[in-house]
Amino acid sequence: MRVLTVPNWSFGRNKALLRRFESILTRSDLKVHFLESDMDHNRTVSAFSGEEKPVQEALLELAAEAFDTIDLNHHLGVHPRIGALDVCPFVPLDGQKDGVDVANALVERCAAAISGRFSVPVFLYEKSERGRHEADLPSLRKGGFGALLEQTIRPDFGPERAHPRLGVTVMGVRDFLLAVNVDLKEEDAVVAKRIGLAIRKLRSDGDPRFLGVRATGWALRSRKISQVSMNITLPDLTDVDPIVEWIIDEARKAGVAFVRTELIGVIRPQDLPGATRLSIHPDQVVAGA
Asked: Which of the listed CATH numbers 3.30.70.20, 1.10.10.10, 3.30.990.10, 3.30.530.20 matches domain 2-173?
């Protein structure tokens, strides 16, 4: 069965490591949809799909490279994280009837290998969570890497203490989502943070324009801009374009100019008509999700 995975790694300034990632993925029996690092986030997002075995093999080879290099004790970046391999979602493709079960079996094999080989605790989330702890990523990230080091934890795989350099990994099967950034021409992120807060309140109030939209704002110091960063978790119900246009309008009212939009990771063909404000590379389009 074909599976999509979107591992998020806690490095964004190591060009040599990124080149090693490129080498691993391009010689694997995989379709590489996305591989980009960001200096301000200090994060690399990869997205690739294929049959279960090559997906698992590539993930473990990437982890071996990354884990030799990353030390979260010396990690600075705007994006929250609790692990060197911070989060690793899997999405079954092609609508196979038992797709979630097959993908969950792959998740458990990968989690067992990560925890066994590298002594990194793994928490399962979303459709893989077993009832041992919170199932959503924001709850599992609460407190960050530093807080994890001070406590005994109850992961689904691996030791009951976070790895002192690599933290923990969150892994599981989840529904398809869209990760979208809107960059604004302001350095201090006051407006971006205000917009992120407004989106969260509108979603909480039940505004249908923002169903399933998680949003935050932060400053990207190296580029002297700010960013409204979003996960659109219900793309079947919530189009991208109206949200982007609303953000641009709110920023304009506050005297802040729009810079660009960015799609991080992948998008489905059925999402494209409602996402014309995004610049999308053909490799980012994933059929079957």
From this structure: 3.30.990.10
